Amino acid sequence: MSGGERGTGTGAVVGRGRRIVLWRHGQTAWNLERRFQGSTDIELTPTGVAQARRAARLLAALRPDAIVASDLSRARATAAELAALTGLPVESDAALRETYAGVWQGLTHDEIIERHGAEYAAWKRGEPVRRGGGELETEVADRAAPVVLAQAGKLPDGGTLVVVSHGGTIRTTIGRLLGLEATSWEALGGLTNCCWSVLGEGARGWRLLEHNAGTLPEPVLGDDD
Fold first, then answer.
1. At which positions is substrate bound (predicted)?
2. Which of 58, 93, 191, 211 is the most buried (most CB within 10 A)?
3. Is 119 a residue of the active site?
4. Catalytic residue at 98?
């Protein structure tokens, strides 16, 4: 490996000009109800399908080289819209699923605060919390970030990977690839349905080029699902 291609702590290789587009799935009924989905398999609404089709037209202009998606139906259906325009296959991977949140899954935001208020407050303070008895955010990054890096490693120089996943998983993956402390990942903010963030390679590894891009500002619904 030459000096110009020396690896960083995140596993990125400097100097190849690759991009990673992390795209959140379209709207679901549980998003509208502010109900925590987690790893529950909830399908897109008709609006969610329309969102995916609109976003896919924009993302197709980036001429992606590969698409990988969570195996949950809302992510696969979103990815399918881009695949239809680009002719690329979609590789599904369960490691890109949303955070498993145990007994929180299926509860509304208000119900979570009412029943698990202390746990919710601790999580918001940045403490390592197994929400609902489920996964830690760092464990989500442990499973998702290596998949993203492995897929990016297959890209040609200047290539683009589209990763179709979920709000919480995308945020933790970005935090891990940027080398941020886990307690600061929440500062990245949420993603609106069918919006995306873009990471590009810089001299020091991956850097955030865009966040929550794709539309004018809209309310973020159910950002951890």
1. 24-31, 74
2. 191
3. no
4. yes
